[in-house]
Amino acid sequence: MAQANLLKKKTPKKKSIPKRPKTGLKGVPLDKGFGYCHRYFYDEIDKNDCLKLCKEYIKKNFSKDDAAAIFANPDYHFWLYNGRAAAIFWMNHDLEFEDKWASYPKRVYQEYAELIEPGKQILAERKAKDEKAAAGPKLSPQELLRRKVNTTVGYEIDYMEDAWLDGKKEDIDLYVEFQKYELKGAAAPHLKDRIEFMRDEYKAAVDKTDECVVEGYAHLTKNELKRRLDVCERMLGDLDKIQAASKATRKKRTPQVRTADKQIKQLKFLKDDNEYKLVSVDPLSVPGSYRLYTFNVKNRELCEYVTTAANGFQIKGTTIQNFEPDKSRKTRLRKPDQFLPIVLKKTPNQIDKEFKKLTTKVNEPSGRINDDTILLRVENK
To answer: How confident is the model over 290-318, as pLDDT tens digits?
Structure first.
């Protein structure tokens, strides 16, 4: 029998893992009386938790109009006085108040009720101000555009920054957002200064060129700072592309060449591409011009066509004619997102300098335009 017991496997004892201490509202002690709870709120509870408790209490205990009037008062009424939030928390758990604190439930209600009249006055003043503004002079198109940008894409950037504060790695595609809200290139400058300011701050934090900025972002890792800097750079790149796209799609009042409309009748090209965020220029501007940049989105092939002919380029079917092979060139881009903004923004001489830095093979272009080709840019010199 003893041998049988020895042969039995010993059951290993389970290791007890200490529980993680509760913090915030979950850590409020419920068994030590309201006085202890009151002190705990002053020492441990975040103001956002207090604000949420107080606003929920107001919604529950006051009418919709009275609650709106109370909420019109400054926010400090809902988070500065921790005792109110502590009393609301205690009442939510149906716990009794000791004699010393017995007046708190009635006091909390009364103190918020006293905010109704001041709140109504604030709302009335706001309404009068809005009516006065509505009756004022008509807003200029630029001001209307600025307001539209701030209440659409501007809000999207606000939400992204709020997410960053919460530790989330949010991003935003301005090219898509501009399409979503039907904004054109004229709206881009209203965002550019804001994003450039963000970019410069994160760059100063990464490069450690400003002690105040470095101290302000000391809670972020270097990788996170670089990620945010990259997001800002991408947004600025998107704004440049949006402006270039608007310029490209601007309709010509009259064709540069009398027969341009007939020349482009059979021309096949790609009107726009969301992957590279590009839009073709008006094809009517190609006949008669002297320099043309195209980009094939399928094989990433960039072409530069140059001509010195008196009548500029001509188009026959789907082929560019009159270009000079020894002055024209094509190459495949390894990093289109870095080089395309240069083609869209820089002068021909600046583009030429950057073109010569490329290490990919340069060949003579064929002149053929197909369904995958974006007409990037046209120049008359």
So the answer is: 999 999 999 999 999 999 888 889 998 99
Is there a contact between 331 and 302 (Cβ–Cβ < 8 Å)? Answer: yes
Tally of structural domains, the chain: 3
Q: Does 190 map to a domain? A: yes
| Contact yes or no for 87/105 (Cβ under 8 A) | yes
pTM recorded for the entire structure: 0.40
Query: Is residue 267 situated within a structural domain?
Result: yes
Distance CA 39, CA 81 (A): 12
Range of the domain at 64: 24-120
